[in-house]
Every structure is written in structure tokens, then in C-alpha cells.
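ok, trying the design again with the full structure, not the truncated one.
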């Protein structure tokens, strides 16, 4: 359509009017310079039908991208940094599948599951109905799960009945308690994803009275934040009398109703020893001895818990909970509490929005700040961190768009053309959805790590380089031809030379990314494949979309069909400047000096930069080698990561520190104690490499056909093994 209303480029419309020799295009089947066959045909299609080449390629790219986004089932995720495919990883994946995965086994194979001695049972998985299989496997996973932290969720119960509103309390329920009291006790002890969880650490002793006072004040400051009473879980048990003396509890008191208190060692001590305000931790008479007695009991319970992972009723009554005690806690001299945990009981759903609002405003961090300790936090289900990470990534993406603007400016400065600048950026942007199509629809990789988005900015630089290569080849070929050379004549000397040069660089770049697929970590593997695919598509769109833009502009400028200012500002400016100089010499009658050729940057590099660099070349070589040696020495001091956590918010962020401490710092932390799982009758197995590209996909289980526990000898051996 565009070509229909533009001058016929093949007939050099208007060329005679400006004294430009007319060029007659050969037909498609004729040789073109030294090119014949498909090479000559490609050059003619690109240069004689640039709009056709441009729009056909654009429609193909948009179609591929639309199909990829609509049907590719792409799942954007920031997780999945576990190793897959190694011998140890296969063992771990078999255990993980057994606990949490959906798997199939040969029909008729009985599976025994047992968590406690009095709850052993045998189940048979149905393999025909996928939904039933999934439901059963998930239920059995929850039944047999032995992950640390699943026990003792309500271990801070003190077996006290609720007191009047003015008295400190924690929900508790005896055998004869009311339904409301039982509901409060269950809610207080249950795992709730919407709870705000705070870890207090970096203290010499959090059981010291000053530390208890400061933690209490920090909890009060959280409860007095605006909106807390709207998202907290209200007690089902009513209270009577005056409101609590504690400012935090008073802020969430409404007549005979009140929010459940925070679940912490602080509130346990306040309820057990009738501490009504935070300041009473340092002023109440006789409290020091009571706290020390509690310390001794907690240390004894911690030592017993390490021995048999059991918690007695006496330990429960004294507030022992491995989820609230630091990993190294025990009898003297290890009876200093260096880390503990507070749970604010909040409504699931609504509380997340409230926490996000307060986190973005800095209210949570401000409320928890103290010189006596460090405070880190997150929601129980870690959705708070996920929301903040997502917003931070979106913000970073917006900031990173400045890179796009910088590249746009550089392309425009180099080419001087707004058309070529936009064409080069379009080439890059089309490569992204096309790569999505190839990875999701062709390779069937649905896992899409957020790392892939970062690859877009890498591609912008690679795409800009390709644009520079093609443009410079075109300009160089044009300079070697007589004035008024057609796009086809220039393309015959430039197109395949530029295409071959970019093919080599694109191939090496894509190969470098594909080499990273050797890593057993799924996000890096997928990122490597995705980047290599984007490099290839960027190359294809450069030799079609961008090449068509270059040819289109060449013919328009040659035929004067568009203002030079619209397409090539620098050519317009140089023309105006040259005309001004010519007019000056014509007016003065002086002879115009001959130009020494080359642009201003070329002359600067040739005349100003090269001579000193050539003179000092040997010194520069020695200096660069020395700097390289220093860099290698410093690189040798780098340490490898200690775990696979990706700290997207920065290591010092409170929510990142929360994850680090929670993972290793408490008695029930999964890294604080070595938990060993042993499965009989299964062979360590993980499905082929294709499965490793989706960390959310579990493999099937593979039976060990040599396992037979039916004989009495085998059963006796297993019994001795367990003992």
C-alpha cells in the first residue's frame, strides 16, 4: 500500500530532474554483480520491495509472538534454583516426589504409610484417574511429611483461661473449656499464612529484662499502627472490665472484644507472671528470678528435644517451642537466647495488602527498630516478600528502560536517522515474542524465569551492534559507487558481506549462551536457551526488517521523496553547513580547500588519538597485562555461594535476612538439624533433561524391583536398621 502511493522506486522517478543518471533494475532472474541465484533474488526483494519485505516479516513476527503468548502456557517465576540431574539431586528428587509429587506406580503395588506407631495403614494408589491420583498423593504427602516445624505449632499454650480485659493473656483451652475458648486456642496455635512473623536477633541475650522490655515495645508499636485492628484476628471470647494497660493491646481493644495477642515468648511471660505493661519487665519485683527459672527450664527442654524430638507437657507449660528458640540454645553456658520469633495473628488475604502498604511506607521497619536487637520480618507464607519483590522488579524494569533510551540515542547519533533508529529497536523488540514462541511452542518449555526479562536488555546491545555493522557496510559500499547509485546496486556490494559478518558474531554469541545449558540449575538453563533463541531471531530480523529500512531510506533520499530532516538529521545539517561554506567562498571568490575525507570522528581518531597510542603501545601492553594479573588474583579470592537462595532485595534487606535466619537460626530450622529420609523400594531417578527445564515438574517414581520385604529375614533387618 505504501509503495502504491510513493514514487516508483524502480524507475528512479525525478532522478533526471536533478541530473542523476537513471539506473535500470535487472529482473529477478538475472545475476546481480557477483551474486547469482537466491543471493541475487534476496538482494532484489530487500532493496526493490522494502515495504513488502518489512511488512511480511513484521506480520510473521507478530503472529509467532501472539501464538507464543496465547498458547505457550508460559509461567513466569522467580523460584526453581534447585539442582537437577546430578546423582545426589536424583536421590533428593525421589524423596521429594514421594512426599509432595503426583506419581504413578504399577497397579497392585501396596504402599505403607505411617507417621506414628498407632496410625499405620496401607493404601493403594489408583493410577487411572489423574484427578484422584493427584488428590490422594497430595493427601498422603501431608500425612507422611516429616519436615521439621510441622510439630508443636501450638506449643506456647499455657493452660490458663482468658482473664479480664485488663489482664495479659494468651488463648488456652483445657478439656472442659467453651467452644469459643477452644476456637481461640486453635486459631492461636494454627499455621496461618497471613500472619506477620518477626524475628528478633543480634542480641547478647533476649531473655534479659531490658531486651524483653524492648521487644515488648516493638510489638506494641506494630499493634498501634493504623489499620492493624482491621486485619487482626479478633478473639471469640469476650472479656469484661477495664481495657488492657498495655498500649498495644489497648489499641486493639473494642469494648468486650480484642485482637488475639502476638504469639511470642514475651506475651507468654507476660501472661504467666502477670506483667501488664512492657516497662514492668524492668520494674516488677521478683520477676528476675521467675525469668531465670523459665530460662533453665527452656534450656533443659531444648536439650531433651535434640535427643528425641519429643516435647513433654511440662515443656509446653513453660513456653518451649523449637520454632521460637535459636538453634544453639541449651544448658549453661549456651542458655543465652540470641534469636526468637513473634507471630502477629492476622486475617489471611486482607492482611497482605495491609502489610504491603506498611512495608512500602517503612512503617513496619520503623516500628521494629531498636538499638537492642535486629528485627527481620515476613508474612508466614512469604507472600509479603513475593509482593515486594515483584514491585521491586517492576520498578527496576522501568529504571532499566533508560538503557533502551541510551541505545536509541546511540543508534540515532551513529546513523543520524530517526527511521533507522526505530527500525533497529523494532528488530530487537520483535525477537523477544518470537523467542517466546520458539521456547514454549517448539521446545515446549513452559517455565519462564524472570531472568529472561533481563535478557532483553542484553539483546538491545547485541541488536544495536548488528545495526551498526549493517549500516556501516552499507555506507562503505555506497561510498565506493558513483553518486546516485540505487539501493539494489549498493545492496549487491553490502548485503551479503554484512550478513556473513553478523552471522559469525551471532553464532558465536548464541553458542556461548548455549554452553551455559550444561549447568544443572533450571533458571540458568532456560535463560541460556532463551537468550540463544533471541540472538538468532534478532539476526534474522536485522537482515530483513532493518535492511528493508536502510534500503527504503536510501531510495527515498536518492529520489527526494521525503525531507532529509525527517530521516537523516545529520545529512541535513551537513548539507546546510556545506551550502553555507560554498556560499561564503563564492562570495569571497577564494578557492575552496580540498577535503581530506572522512567524518569528524574518523579524523579525530586518525589524527589525534592514534599517534600517541602508537607511540606508547609497548607501555600500554605492559600496563594492561599487569592489570589483568591483578584482576585474576582478586577473582581467585571470590567465594562460592553457601546456598541457592537468590537475594533479589539485597542481602541487608530485613525480609532477606528473615529468610536466612529462619532457614538456619532456630531449633526447627531445616538447616539447623540434619534430617535424613530413607525410602525403600525406590530407585533414585529423575526424568530426562527435558524435565529439568521445569523445576515445578516432578518425575515419576521408579520401583526398585530387587527390593523384597516379604521374608522374615528382610523384616528383621529393617527393624534393626531403624533401631
Amino acid at each position: 500500500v505504501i509503495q502504491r502511493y510513493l514514487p516508483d522506486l524502480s524507475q528512479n522517478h525525478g532522478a533526471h530532474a536533478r541530473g542523476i543518471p537513471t539506473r535500470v533494475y535487472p529482473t529477478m532472474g538475472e545475476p546481480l554483480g557477483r551474486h547469482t541465484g537466491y543471493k541475487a533474488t534476496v538482494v532484489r526483494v530487500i532493496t526493490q520491495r522494502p515495504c513488502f519485505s518489512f511488512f511480511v516479516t513484521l506480520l510473521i513476527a507478530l503472529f509467532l509472538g501472539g501464538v507464543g503468548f496465547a498458547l505457550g502456557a508460559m509461567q513466569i517465576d522467580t523460584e526453581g534454583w534447585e539442582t537437577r540431574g546430578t546423582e545426589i539431586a536424583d536421590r533428593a528428587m525421589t524423596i521429594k516426589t514421594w512426599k509432595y509429587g503426583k506419581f504413578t506406580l504399577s497397579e497392585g503395588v501396596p504402599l505403607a504409610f505411617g507417621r506414628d506407631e498407632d496410625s499405620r495403614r496401607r493404601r493403594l494408589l489408583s493410577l487411572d484417574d489423574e484427578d484422584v491420583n493427584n488428590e490422594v498423593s497430595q493427601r498422603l504427602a501431608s500425612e507422611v511429611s516429616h519436615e521439621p516445624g510441622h510439630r508443636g505449632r501450638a506449643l506456647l499454650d499455657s493452660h490458663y483461661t482468658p482473664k479480664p480485659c485488663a489482664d495479659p493473656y494468651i488463648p488456652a483451652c483445657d478439656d472442659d473449656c467453651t467452644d469459643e475458648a477452644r476456637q481461640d486456642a486453635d486459631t492461636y496455635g494454627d499455621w496461618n499464612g497471613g500472619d506477620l512473623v518477626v524475628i528478633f536477633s543480634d542480641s547478647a541475650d533476649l531473655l534479659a529484662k531490658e531486651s524483653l522490655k524492648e521487644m515488648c515495645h516493638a510489638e506494641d508499636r506494630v499493634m498501634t499502627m493504623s489499620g492493624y485492628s482491621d486485619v487482626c484476628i479478633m478473639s471469640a471470647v469476650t472479656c469484661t472490665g477495664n481495657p488492657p494497660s498495655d498500649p498495644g493491646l489497648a489499641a486493639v481493644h473494642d469494648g468486650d472484644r480484642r485482637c488475639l495477642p502476638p504469639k511470642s515468648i514475651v506475651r507468654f511471660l507476660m501472661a504467666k507472671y502477670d506483667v501488664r505493661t512492657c516497662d514492668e519487665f524492668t520494674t516488677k519485683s521478683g520477676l528476675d528470678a521467675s525469668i531465670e527459672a523459665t530460662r533453665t527450664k527452656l534450656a533443659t527442654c531444648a536439650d531433651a528435644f535434640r535427643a528425641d524430638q519429643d516435647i513433654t507437657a511440662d515443656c509446653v507449660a513453660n513456653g518451649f517451642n523449637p520454632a521460637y528458640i535459636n538453634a544453639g540454645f541449651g544448658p549453661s553456658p549456651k542458655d543465652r537466647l540470641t534469636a526468637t520469633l513473634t507471630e502477629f495473628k492476622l486475617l489471611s488475604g486482607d492482611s497482605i495488602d495491609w502489610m504491603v502498604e506498611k512495608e512500602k511506607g517503612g512503617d513496619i521497619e520503623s516500628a521494629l527498630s531498636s538499638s537492642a536487637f535486629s528485627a527481620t520480618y515476613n508474612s508466614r507464607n512469604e507472600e509479603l516478600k513475593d509482593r515486594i519483590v515483584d514491585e521491586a522488579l517492576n520498578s527496576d524494569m522501568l529504571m532499566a528502560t533508560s538503557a533502551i533510551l541510551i541505545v536509541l540515542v546511540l543508534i540515532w547519533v551513529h546513523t543520524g536517522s530517526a527511521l533507522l533508529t526505530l527500525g533497529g529497536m523494532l528488530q530487537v523488540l520483535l525477537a523477544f515474542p518470537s523467542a517466546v514462541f520458539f521456547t514454549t511452542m517448539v521446545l515446549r518449555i513452559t517455565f519462564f524465569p524472570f531472568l529472561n526479562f533481563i535478557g532483553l536488555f542484553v539483546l538491545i546491545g547485541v541488536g544495536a551492534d548488528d545495526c551498526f555493522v549493517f549500516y556501516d557496510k552499507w555506507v562503505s559500499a555506497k561510498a565506493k559507487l558513483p553518486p546516485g547509485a540505487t539501493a539494489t546496486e549498493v545492496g549487491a556490494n553490502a548485503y551479503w558481506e554484512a550478513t556473513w559478518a553478523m552471522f559469525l558474531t551471532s553464532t558465536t554469541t548464541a553458542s556461548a549462551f548455549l554452553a551455559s545449558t550444561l549447568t544443572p540449575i533450571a533458571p540458568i538453563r532456560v535463560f541460556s536457551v532463551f537468550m540463544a533463541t533471541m540472538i538468532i531471531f534478532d539476526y534474522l530480523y536485522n537482515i530483513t526488517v532493518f535492511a528493508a529500512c536502510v534500503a527504503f531510506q536510501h531510495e527515498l533520499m536518492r529520489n527526494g521523496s521525503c525531507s532529509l530532516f525527517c530521516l537523516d538529521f545529520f545529512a541535513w545539517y551537513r548539507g546546510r553547513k556545506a551550502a553555507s561554506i560554498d556560499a561564503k567562498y563564492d562570495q569571497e571568490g577564494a578557492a575552496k580547500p580540498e577535503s581530506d575525507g572522512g567524518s569528524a570522528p574518523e579524523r579525530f581518531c586518525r589524527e589525534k588519538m592514534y599517534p600517541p597510542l602508537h607511540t606508547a603501545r609497548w607501555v600500554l601492553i605492559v600496563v594492561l597485562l599487569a592489570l589483568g594479573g591483578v584482576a585474576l588474583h582478586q577473582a581467585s579470592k571470590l567465594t562460592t555461594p553457601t546456598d541457592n537462595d537468590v537475594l533479589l532485595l539485597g542481602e541487608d534487606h530485613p525480609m532477606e535476612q528473615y529468610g536466612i535466619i529462619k532457614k538456619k537460626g532456630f531449633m526447627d530450622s531445616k538447616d539447623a538439624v540434619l534430617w535424613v529420609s530413607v525410602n525403600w523400594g525406590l530407585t533414585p531417578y529423575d526424568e530426562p533433561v527435558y524435565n529439568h527445564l521445569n523445576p515445578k515438574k516432578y518425575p515419576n517414581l521408579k520401583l526398585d524391583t530387587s527390593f523384597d520385604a516379604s521374608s522374615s529375614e528382610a523384616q528383621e533387618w529393617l527393624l534393626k536398621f531403624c533401631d
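Keeping the full-length input from now on. Residues 1-25, 107-161 have pLDDT under 50 and may be disordered.
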